[in-house]
């Protein structure tokens, strides 16, 4: 029998290391589909077939999402929320430590950009224009199915639209409609009404604004917004502030309920079944303290580094 203080290594890291050894370190951030309502489909860049989206599956370059009729979805990239309305097609063109580039080919998205460092860019491409979000703020982008019409509303922030060899600014409390492909026309229009999709997005913003877990983890840690509803924080020496799931099943332990998938460039990646199961399995580490498993997020840093799974967890009941 192993003692309760035995260090248990997760085999994932050793197994996955060769997958990106030649290409250098993989990006330190990913995207995550953290909410879906209705029929939302997912297609990884390495596959031709669509499947039902999984909330804790990490999204990266080449991945595609589709929100069907009467569906909605929310994707997080760090502290940024990208929300999809009904009949919206969105994909990830580029995603690394400094760049976010998304493709919106049809439908409507609302973007809540909480932070944008000087060395970072955030861009949304439609079939006829590239939209650069220049400042933190709230944005609405709509791509019509004809491939030749894009509408952009800047509730707050600042955007620049580039297409047809021209660039156009869109200032706070302004909206624009861009038509054409090779030769485009930019028209200043009224801000759209605050429809049910906008109000839903604002409700999601308020939920994140009120999250208590940001006292213990940074907003750039994907999945922080789920921790309040599914567990509690407490101070446990010598770990400091730790989080414990509230309704874990009898015999629950980390890495027991979920599955492994291969996600390039990280390699084997853990996808947990729990609705809160993103942050605690990709940042920090697990420990067994006071008769229960606790998640130790570690020191608060501005840009937490994503990992496909935790390197190790400490302690635990006796292992056989």
TrEMBL record:
<dbReference type="InterPro" id="IPR006860">
    <property type="entry name" value="FecR"/>
</dbReference>
<feature type="signal peptide">
    <location>
        <begin position="1"/>
        <end position="21"/>
    </location>
</feature>
<dbReference type="Pfam" id="PF04773">
    <property type="entry name" value="FecR"/>
</dbReference>
<keyword id="KW-0732">Signal</keyword>
<dbReference type="InterPro" id="IPR046535">
    <property type="entry name" value="DUF6600"/>
</dbReference>
<dbReference type="Pfam" id="PF20245">
    <property type="entry name" value="DUF6600"/>
</dbReference>
<feature type="domain" description="FecR protein">
    <location>
        <begin position="78"/>
        <end position="159"/>
    </location>
</feature>
<protein>
    <submittedName>
        <fullName>FecR domain-containing protein</fullName>
    </submittedName>
</protein>
